[in-house]
Structures are given as structure tokens and as C-alpha cells.
Design brief:
Distance between the termini: 39 Å
Number of domains: 1
Order of helices and strands: HHHHHHHHH
Strand content: under 5%
Structural class: mainly alpha
Number of strands: 0
Largest sheet: none
């Protein structure tokens, strides 16, 4: 019978091998799926996005919604391929600042009345969970040069 330590090592090796690829594919699926819903007029986040971008110049809020949706699709697609991970992370970094704007611009929507800043609404929770997306991008970004080092060795 195998020892618990040997089983633990095997599980750890499996997680080390598949953790980052699973993160990349998860990011791709989420960004492609949720991004595509915006220009298709199917996103439950559309009202929040429209209210957040209503002040922005150059385009109507509806057009900004389409731009943001296709931007998110581009983020997702670039997470699919190792050579475009830097592009994915750059696009994500540019997009993330905007995702937190409703917390400041629309606190009446993102926090329960009289309970700011500790009790978010479902919209606020949706935004705050982006901290996890940023962390996932940091983990993925930390692997970009690892294959380059292995290839150069």
C-alpha cells in the first residue's frame, strides 16, 4: 500500500502540472463567454456597465458596451495561447481599472443602503471578485518566462 506522503506528492505534482493551464482556460472561457454576451445584448451586467460608462466621451454608452464586450473576448482569446499571454495580461490590466469604477461611481448600486463599505450588493460582489481574477493573472504571468528559460538552457 502506498504511503500517504507518496499519494500527497502525486496529487501535488498533478496540481502543479495542471493548475496554471486550468487557470488559463478558465480565464479564457469566462472572458469569451461573458464578453460575448455584451454585444449580443444578453449580459445581465449591461445596465451596470451602461451606467458606469455614461460619462465617457467619443461613443454612446451602448457603443462602449460593445467595445468592452469585444475587448473581453480578446482577453479571453489571448489567454488561450502561450505566445499571447503577455497581450492577455496587458489587455486585462487595462480593463480591470474600469471594472472597479462602479464601486466609487455607483455606491448606491454596489453596496447595501446604509452598510457601505462592508456589505456589497450582488453587483458589488460581482466586482469585488475581480480581485481573484487579478491574482489568477499574476500567477499566469509569473509563468511566461519559465518556458523561455527552459528553452534557452
Amino acid at each position: 500500500m502506498r504511503s500517504i506522503d507518496a499519494i500527497d506528492r502525486d496529487i501535488s505534482a498533478f496540481m502543479r502540472r495542471w493548475g496554471v493551464p486550468a487557470l488559463r482556460w478558465s480565464m479564457a472561457v469566462i472572458f469569451i463567454w461573458f464578453g460575448a454576451l455584451k454585444p449580443l445584448g444578453l449580459s445581465p451586467a449591461a445596465p451596470l456597465v451602461l451606467d458606469t460608462v455614461s460619462w465617457m466621451p467619443l461613443l454612446s454608452p451602448e457603443k462602449w458596451l460593445h467595445v468592452i464586450g469585444w475587448w473581453e473576448v480578446a482577453i479571453g482569446v489571448t489567454f488561450l495561447f502561450r505566445p499571447t499571454l503577455r497581450v492577455a495580461i496587458a489587455l486585462l490590466a487595462l480593463q480591470m481599472g474600469g471594472t472597479f469604477l462602479p464601486l466609487v461611481m455607483l455606491p448606491e448600486v454596489t453596496f447595501q443602503e446604509g452598510r457601505w463599505p462592508f456589505v456589497p450588493t450582488i453587483e458589488g460582489q460581482y466586482i469585488i471578485k475581480n480581485l481573484l481574477i487579478i491574482s489568477a493573472a499574476l500567477v499566469i504571468g509569473g509563468t511566461v518566462r519559465s518556458t523561455e528559460r527552459a528553452r534557452d538552457a
